[in-house]
Give the backbone structure.
Amino acid sequence: MSTSHNSTPNDSLRKTRLNKLFHDVNHGERSLKSTQDANRYIEALCCQPDPATCIEAVVSTSAGLQAVQMSVRFDVSDAFLNGAAADLLAYLQHPDIESLLGGALLRQVLESITKPPILWNAYLQSYRSGNLLVMAQVSFAWLLLQLLYLPLPDCAPYHQLAQDPKLQDSFLKSGELKLRTIGSKIKHVLSIIETSSTDSPGGCAGGRHDNDFADFREVAILPTADELAAKEPPFLRLAEAIEDPEVTEHRLAMHLDNQFRLYREDMLGELREEIQIALGQKKGRHRGIVINGLVVLGIDCGTEAKRQSWGLRLQCKEDLPILRNIKPKNRKSVIESSHRLLKHQSLTCLILDGEITAFPSIHRDIDLLAATPPVISVRFSGAANPSIAKTLLKLKKCQVIRLVQIDTAVFAYEPVLQGLQRMKTLPLVNELLFWSPASSVDLPPNAPSRAIHKLVHHPLADLQDLLQSPKPVVLDKSQNESLVASLSQTVSLIQGPPG
């Protein structure tokens, strides 16, 4: 959609109407009922001047995401794919959108567009038939690249498609530079996905226990019982293995793999130590509570009015220490004031007949905890975690159930580890992983050329006006060189003293 620089009263009126349509649809005050409505909504979205604010507005309401999804369902003709759909995808390519929450908002919008894959299937068929114009071809290739960034198993079908040699050649041999660039990125992402942890002197990943895989993206964040019981050390690469010139092609994949395994091992180290202290196997102070002699009361799925993800209800045989001698009418208030007692979503360790079996989290239900005797509700995360099935089977026969509240800050590790599993590329990868003394460092985007010019040509000048400082600022030679480097390079290493 092209925009004119010379605005007319009619243009202003149309823009006002489009803005009202955008607002009304996103807030559920109006729905899309026809192809014409869908095209006008896409036009209204694409004419928003600030792409980041626009996408935040769309994602912040369920009606907004639903509208985006509906807008690409009414019509999948070649005219739509080359027109409104291509405009929408081109708008979503703005770098400000990709930077929002590490790309999380963009993924939400793309998932609404591609699930179910009505638009995607139409684009794929039209591309293979040669019916897409250049802009739509670029939009299709970009969409494929973004779908490859999805976590497993969501990216699997797109991964298989992207491996098609004919499809890759059509991108890489295109006469359009943007299409060739995206094709190169797709090839790069595929090389990362396909690289496994199998080429290190310390052995290879996979096979040590039920949560050890060659592809680190398949590893569950929380450990399994078999993993904690394993005697064989984990697979970790040495720095020289990653810096080996013979593995340059796979260095990024190896780096992401190693960063995940190293960081996760830090978490597991804290977790192991805390469990050992809680069980009396090691000296130290354990801040959580240990509850012995629990009984399985049943499955907990919330109330009929408000269903929740499933969990287990475990009934205590004895009262919690903090509730002993407390009158029934005061039990709830005591629990509500004891914020650290079985804190909501805090991690626990479930021990059956003396064996660690799983790491469920607490679902803090005040009414259940205030019951006599108290009932504790726990939730199991990660449906694919192999510990869950083993835990449920063992619960049928076990005699002694024990629950240990964990104080390790798993919540701080988890989002970083999940982020590493989602990553298929790395910002500043050339500077950080492939730099050599013969390399040149790129000029950063939006570099302050006026400031750099003054620092280079007048190194002893007062920078008070330039920095808008209340006092005069004059740098010495080393300070000036450091500032010039930091402003004119994408990456700079500045060492002190002085600061």
Notes: Confidence is low (pLDDT under 50) at residues 1-5, 197-202. The longest strand covers residues 307-316. The first helix runs from residue 9 to 26. The radius of gyration is 29 Å.
